[in-house]
Amino acid sequence: MLALQKLRPGPGVELLQVAPPRSPPPGEVLIKVHMAGICGTDLHIAQWTPGYESMKEAMPVTLGHEFAGVIEEVGADVPGALVGKRVTVRPSTTCGVCEACGIGDEDGCTRRKGIGIGRNGAFAGYVCAPAGNCHILPDTLQLDVAALTEPMTVCLEAVQTAEVRAGQRVLVLGPGFIGQGIAILARARGAGVVIAGWDDAPRLDLLRSLDFDHLLDGKDGTQDVALRKLGPFDAIIEAAGVPALVSATLPYLRKRGIFTVVGIHPHPAEIDLTRLVRMHQQIRGSYRANPSDWAKTIAFLDTHQDVMRRLISHRFPLTGALEGLEVSRRRLASKVILQIGEPS
Ligand SMILES: [Zn+2]
Ligand SMILES: [Zn+2]
């Protein structure tokens, strides 16, 4: 089968023929992949930016951790009734035997392996995954939108961490897929949302077409004036990964406001902590969602399918995976989906 793999530590990924996985091991299922999304993490891995060194042990490894497909075969100890089920998969797999796993702290597992990072992922015709990581999809949810589940759980975690409520004013920094997803979830909670980008016309235009009307592009130099007018904000959610934006936008956070950081930053940010203290503000980090938030996210996608499908800006077959990565890198795309099996 064709697979997009990382073969060695260093820049680059390759599309090549590999042997399909054999029957799934005990506790796991074999999934025919239909739809798989390209994420910022895949770009980092392709470009080999620092932070992914531990992948070395898994190489050669197939990338792809945001996906949906159909269970084709089950391993020992897995109910046969799962065959034929349409699923999306939590990519974080745990060892089941370490101390954290023993007390049910899935996130604390010391031997956690990410599907598509530390073990073979979904940029291929087939992928194996633990049955316990699979979430069965409602019949009404199409697989292209279902492949957005993993990144949307990141958005849900951010909105929950920021404690976004109805009637609040929320500023979202960065209009990439994560920022767009956060904006959609915050609006669904009844908050008034302002989204700021920097030379981001295509992605801000997409938000405009979804009826967001407070959109600021830093390129035109009027952003500070607009933020002063639209703020102060109850919550600022940063999804741009630009350290300078933290100090530049903190002045627009109201007293006792919450600043939530979701982006991955290449270097530390400088923050006026005395001002933070006097304003009684909080800075919080938000990362992986709780497994229990997956069902909530799937339900949201099911009921907001038309809006969410609009965030899929580009589609490629697996043979176009390298082009898909290139489009993602150019900040034109919201979400690039690889259509691997037939769309359904
Ligand atoms: Zn991702
Ligand atoms: Zn463990």
Automatic annotation (TrEMBL):
InterPro entries: ADH-like_C, ADH-like_N, ADH_Zn_CS, ER, GroES-like_sf, NAD(P)-bd_dom_sf, Zn_alcohol_dh. It comes from the Bacteria. The keyword Transmembrane helix does not apply. Residues 12-338 form the Enoyl reductase (ER) domain. Gene3D superfamilies: Medium-chain alcohol dehydrogenases, catalytic domain, NAD(P)-binding Rossmann-like Domain. Its cofactor is Zn(2+). PROSITE patterns: ADH_ZINC. This is Alcohol dehydrogenase. It comes from Pseudorhizobium halotolerans. Pfam families: ADH_N, ADH_zinc_N. Keywords: Metal-binding, Oxidoreductase, Zinc. Belongs to the zinc-containing alcohol dehydrogenase family.
